[in-house]
Amino acid sequence: MISDQGIIYRVKHKRNCMAGMDVLIVGGGGREHALAIGLSQSESVSTVHASPGNAGTSMVGLNHGISSTDIDGLVSLAVDLDVALVVVGPESPLVEGLADRLRAKEIPCFGPHSEGAKLEGSKLHAKRVMKSLGIPTGDFIVVYDEGDVQSSLDSFKPPWVVKRDVLAGGKGVTVTSKREDAEEALCEAVESDGFALLEQHLSGEEASVLVVMDESGYVLLPASQDHKRVDDGDRGPNTGGMGAYAPAPVATPAVMRRVTEEIVEPMHHHLGNGDTPYRGCLYVGLMIDRDGSPSVVEFNVRLGDPEAQVTIPLIASDLGLTLLAAAEGSLARAEVEFHDLNAATVVLASEGYPGTPATDRPVSGWDACIEEGQVRAFTHLAGAVIGEDGNLHSSGGRVLSATGIAPTLGEAVESSYQIIGSIELEGSHYRSDIGFRALSR
Ligand code: GLY
Questions:
Q1: What are phi and psi of 173, to 5 degrees?
Q2: Which of 44, 77, 133, 435 is buried deepest, with most CB atoms within 10 A?
Q3: Which CATH code of 2.70.70.10, 1.10.150.130, 1.10.290.10, 3.40.50.20 fits the domain covering 21-116?
Q4: CATH (residue range 140-199)
Q5: Residues with Cβ within 6 A of ligand 1?
Q6: How many angstroms does the Cα of residue 219 sit away from the middle of ligand 1?
Q7: Domain-wise residue ranges, the chain
C-alpha cells in the first residue's frame, strides 16, 4: 500500500544527536541525496551538511549555498563547519583539486586527489594506465590531425566510438555506425581539443562496479546496471542515466572474480603506491562479453548516479564509518556488510531532457512511500527545489528517482513503478523497462 504519511528517510533523521561526527557532502543530485540518507542513518554521524544540496538533502540535513565548482568556498565551508569528513559526489571538484586542498588542511576527504581524478578527467590518461597495467580494455587510436580521420576510421569496424578528452558530463562520447557522423565528431574534437580518441567498440552487457578504495584495501559494492539511453529498449540519445538496479546478475561470481583479479587488483596496486594514495571510489564501467570476459569501458573517480541510489541502500554497515575509514587510509580494518536484498531505481525526467529541460514546474506525489515487510520504496530527489510556495518544483533534467528495495529484483522494480506512477509533473517522462535484461534472463 502506498502511504503519504511522511517519507522513510525523514523518520531516521537525527540532526540534533551530539554523539557522532559532522559530515559535508559536496553536490546536489540524486546520488548526494542517497549519500545523505545513508549518512543520516549512520550511528557514527550526527549532522549531515550538503553543498549545494537539493530539496532531498535539506530533509535529512542542512544545505549550504556554495556551488560544487567553488573550491575555495567549499574548503572554507569545511573549515568553518569543522566537519570530520567531506564526501565529494561529482567529479569536477575532484579534478579541480578539492581533495588535495582539504587534505592540506587535515580534513579527511572521500574522493581522490587531482592526480587520481585524471582517470576520469582524461580518457587518454586512463587508456594509457590500463594499457601499461595490462587491464582488459578496447584498442584505441589518438587522432591529432583532420587529415588522419579517414585512415583512422578504416582501422576499426563500425560502430565507431569517438571520445573527447574532456569532462563533458557523459556528452563527450559519440557511438555511431554512420561514417559521416563519426567523421564529424572526430573533426570537431580535433578542432576544439587538439585531438580525439577513436576506440574499438565493445559488445556485450554493461555493468558498473563501484570500488571503495584506499591504500590499505578495497571493497567492491554489489555490481549494478545503469540504463543510459533515454527510451525503452536502450534507444534514443544518451543521458546521465535513466534508472539502475543492483545486484546485476550479469556480474556472476565468476565475472566478479575476474574483475577483481584482472582490473581491481592491478588498479589498487597502482593507485595505492603513489606519493599520495587514492582514497575514494573507483567506478569501473564494464562491458561483459558473451563468454563472461570483462573489459573496462571507462573509469570514473566517484560513485555513479543513479548507481549510488541502488548500491548505498544495500550497505548494511555504518556508511559514515566506511567512508571515513577510506578517507583516512584504514579501510582494511573496516567491516563492510551488505543486505541480501535487491534495489531498483527509475528516473523521472523533465520534458525536453536530455536536451534543454523544462524547469520550475510543480511536482506532486513525490513523498509517497511503501513500507511492507522487507519491501520499501521512496524517492531520491535530484533536480528539485522547494519553491517559495513551499511545494516541490523541478529545477533540472533528472528531477527525482523512485527507488525500491526488496527481496527480489521483480519486487524492487514493481515497487519503484508504484511510486513513480503516483507522481505528477507536467511533460515528464521515464523508462518503463528498468531491469529488463535481468528480469528476462
Ligand atoms: N551513471 C553513469 C555515471 O554516473 O557516470
A1: -120, 130
A2: 435
A3: 3.40.50.20
A4: 3.30.1490.20
A5: 226, 241, 300, 304-305, 307
A6: 19
A7: 21-116, 140-199
Nearest CA to ligand 1 atom 4: 304
Helices (H), 110-204: 114-121, 123-133, 149-154, 179-193
User: What confidence tier does 170 reach under pLDDT thresholds 50, 70, 90?
Assistant: low
Atom of ligand 1 nearest to the CA of 303: 4
Check pLDDT > 90 for residue 321. yes
SS3 121: helix
Average pLDDT rounded to a whole number, residues 22-36: 98
Count the neighbouring beta carbons within 10 Å of the beta carbon of residue 337: 11
Express each pLDDT in 242-262 by its tens digit.
999 999 999 999 999 999 999
| Distance (Å) from CA 304 to ligand 1 centroid | 4
Per-residue pLDDT, 274: 80
Region 267-280: what's the mean pLDDT? Answer: 94
CA distances from 284 to 183, 281, 358 (A): 28, 9, 32
Cβ 160 vs Cβ 182: under 8 Å = yes
